[in-house]
């Protein structure tokens, strides 16, 4: 795995990225445009096995010419790593062993809350909000990372 700063140095050209919100039951996936301006929710994957996740990610990567993965890192509010952050780091390392594109972690504190609040401002009903919360959180994570890359 690399840092987002290292990714920025390696990829001077813009390219498409995917963002992941690794939940305990579901994984939200988002994608950005080639200019890295806008992150868009893509899909939600049920979290079954690592092999299924790798297979699904490979398909998304191949179909969309993805050059990097940004994974939300659920740090504690004080910035320390807890159990969730260690679990995400372990999964990220397993993905990194199986997929040959750069992977970086991005601070995701409050991403689910932010995605939920944003969808409420857009007047999306609660059942649709909850159904799409994981992929919206992934888009929130990826948007933060591409905003960082662009500044």
Fold-level CATH name: Nucleotidyltransferase, domain 5
What fraction, in percent, of the residue positions are helical? Answer: 40-55%
User: Count of DSSP E strands?
Assistant: 5
Biggest beta sheet summary: 5 strands, mixed
Q: What this model shows, in words?
A:
This protein is of the alpha/beta class. The protein has a single domain (4-150), classed as 2-Layer Sandwich (Nucleotidyltransferase, domain 5), CATH 3.30.420.140. Helix content is 48%, strand content 23%. It has six helices and five strands, in the order H-E-E-E-H-E-H-E-H-H-H. The protein has helices spanning 4-10, 50-64, 83-98, 111-121, 126-131, 133-150; strands at 16-22, 26-32, 39-46, 66-73, 103-107. Helix 4 (111-121) packs across helix 6 (133-150). The longest helix is centred in the last third of the chain and has 18 residues, at 133-150. It is globular, with a radius of gyration of 14 Å. It starts with a helix and ends with a helix. 34% of the residues are buried. The mean pLDDT is 86.
Task: Give a topology summary.
Layout: H1 4-10, E1 16-22, E2 26-32, E3 39-46, H2 50-64, E4 66-73, H3 83-98, E5 103-107, H4 111-121, H5 126-131, H6 133-150
Parallel strand pairs: 1-4, 4-5
Antiparallel strand pairs: 1-2, 2-3
Helix pairs in contact: 4-6
């Amino acid at each position: 795995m690399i840092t987002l700063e290292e990714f920025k140095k390696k990829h001077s050209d813009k390219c498409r990225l995917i963002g992941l919100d690794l939940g305990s039951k579901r994984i939200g996936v988002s994608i950005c445009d080639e200019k890295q301006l806008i992150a868009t929710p893509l899909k939600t994957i049920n979290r079954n096995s690592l092999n299924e996740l790798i297979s699904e990610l490979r398909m998304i990567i191949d179909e969309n010419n993805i050059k990097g993965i940004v994974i939300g890192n659920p740090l504690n509010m004080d910035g320390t790593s807890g159990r969730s952050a260690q679990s995400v780091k372990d999964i990220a390392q397993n993905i990194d062993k199986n997929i040959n594109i750069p992977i970086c972690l991005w601070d995701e504190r409050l991403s689910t809350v932010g995605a939920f609040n944003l969808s409420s401002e857009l007047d999306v009903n609660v059942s649709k909000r909850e159904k799409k919360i994981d992929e919206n959180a992934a888009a929130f994570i990826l948007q933060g990372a591409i905003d960082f890359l662009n500044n």
